[in-house]
Amino acid sequence: MTPHALWTAFYTILSREIRRFTRIWPQTLLPPAVTMTLYFIIFGNLIGSRIGKMDGFDYMQFIVPGLIMLAVITSSYGNVVSSFFSMKFQHSIEELLVAPVPNWVILAGYVCGGMARGLGIGVVVTLVSLAFTHLQIHNLLMVVVTVFLTSALFSLGGFINAMLATKFDDISIVPTFILTPLTYLGGVFYSINLLPDVWRAVSMANPILYMVNGFRYGILGVSDVNPFVSLGMILLFIVVLAAVALNLLRRGKGIRN
Amino acid sequence: MAYALEIQGLTKTYGNGFQALKGIDLKVAKGDFFALLGPNGAGKSTTLGVVSSLVNKSAGQVRVFGHDMDTELSAAKLNLGVVPQEFNFNQFEKVLDIVTTQAGYYGIPLKQALISAEKYLKQLGLWDKRNTPSRTLSGGMKRRLMIARALVHEPRLLILDEPTAGVDIELRRSMWTFLQEMNRNGTTIILTTHYLEEAEALCRNIAIIDHGQILRNTSKRELLQQLSVETFVLDLAGGHQQLPQLDGYVRRFDKDGALEVDVQKGSGLNQVFVQLQQQGIEVDSMRTKANRLEELFVRMVEANADNSDNDPKAQL
After folding, report:
1. A95, B78: Cβ pair inside 8 Å?
2. Among A122, B17, B235, B304, which is most exposed with the fewest C-beta within 10 angstroms?
3. A12:B92 CB<8 A
4. Dist CA A151 CA A147 (whole Å)
5. Residue A135 burial (10 A CB sphere; 0-12, 13-18, 19+)
6. A9 contacts B106? CB cut-off 8 A
């Protein structure tokens, strides 16, 4: 295929993904906005006002970066895992497999589709947060790079989950039992400096901690970890997961007999 | 001679050890209308699955218009359109979106895809349904949608896996006309079907596959010439209790009381009518008992099953 044809194939996958999640917007775009509004009201306003300062910021200001990241992570992951698995389930994935689309274009199309939803949700949640607090941007480049890479990383994760899943249960197990606990324990609601040394060391093994803190550094200028270490960790995970996803596609795992 | 499809030594062994294809060889000439026939589980869909890249082969070579699927997969796929047996489009998408999206996967820009989609949706009678969600289409419309989708990138080889399954007779005939027109315009067509009258009506060459092996691969004409006996059914006027005397012919009544006569190839029917007339018996109407190809197909598959039963290896 020519570069222009490859671009057309990529754009087709991406636009179909965007068409899908905007068509079912009450299931995809609305719930994170409602959930995050509740977080802001309950944790930010009601409870947060009694907590006081965290790393020198109002509790509301402190949790906003983490909550934006939480929404981006779950939306990016959820978009790819549900879209790709439902294509497998309906066998409409065969439309792609019979066509001359290289595996890397398929992966790029789905990952960018997941990023489109994740980043769109990130913007929505950011706008909602502005109704509750004032947001400053400490380092715009760090904010943009961190949120883009994190969204890409979890889109890749969703893709791998969908490739390996054989039933609908399989696409909810990882988000429920792995992703959500790691996100909640990744410093969204607290600084790990509040934890005893043992638990602080354990938290350092949580990859989501680096993403939340990298993003928080970009917005607030404070972080529990070195922001450049955060970026390095995210990039490393992206490379590893992309290699795994391409290998699964090459083998046709779960999609070719 | 250049071939639209060349298959050499193709084998497929599934994870559970079942060997679906046992080294088949198959060649389909450019411009051919080719049928791949076989009973359920014979290996038809596996063969087409490998050609369509939906099934990983265990060994062998597949070339589409000379492009090896191991080394020139993209070029091979560009020449190929596939209509699978099962509905495999997104049930929530609209008809036009399904067809234009497929074109996009082949690198065709949207503007051009819309022109091609309009052409095929109109030809297949689906243009009025272009903004309808695909799940609301009837079974026949869904089949036609899959044909339109397979053609949107103008493939030179069209593969159809039981394209008229579950389609009513009128629609089946209109699909035959459409496919014949496509073939006349230069598209090579390979189809599998359970309706052997379909293969007899449409195809020039036929391969019969069973137990993962090609039993015959020849022209329809040559295949039909192998039939040594054909059975005719005669509805006799007035009804008869006793079998008429027909020297040189095996005859019997069927369950509805019609006379069945086995006629040896080359002996003709004149003597049957002469003898009946001599006995004062009039014939109201006449038809062949079974589709000729069906008769031959059943015999071949039964013979192959007998051979397999006698082969100890085949029983493992």
Report:
1. no
2. B17
3. no
4. 6
5. middle
6. yes
- pLDDT one-digit tens code per residue, B195-207: 777 888 888 998 9
C-alpha dihedral (A65, A71, A73, A78), degrees to nearest 10:
180
Residue A92 makes CB contacts below 8 A (sequence gap 6+) with B88, B89, B90
Q: For A110, what's the count of Cα atoms within 13 Å in the CB-facing half-sphere?
A: 34
- The dihedral through the CA atoms of A174, A176, A182, A187 has a sign that is positive
ipTM confidence score: 0.86
Q: Do A94 and B88 touch (CB under 8 A)?
A: yes
Measured CA to CA, the distance from residue B274 to residue B259 in angstroms comes to 15
Looking at the predicted structure, is the pLDDT value of residue A28 above 50? yes
Which residues of chain B have a CB within 8 Å of the CB of A101? Answer: 105
pLDDT per position as a tens digit, A85-138 = 999 998 999 999 999 999 999 999 999 999 999 999 999 999 998 888 888 888
A→B contacts (Cβ < 8 Å), by residue, are 1-2, 4-6, 8-9, 11-13, 16, 19, 23, 87, 90-92, 94-102, 252, 256-257
Tell me what percent of the residues of chain B surpass a pLDDT of 90: 45
Domains and CATH numbers, chain B: 3-224 (3.40.50.300), 228-292 (3.30.70.1560)
Chain B residue whose CA is closest to A11: B104
Comparing alpha-carbon positions, the chain A residue that sits nearest to B46 is: A257
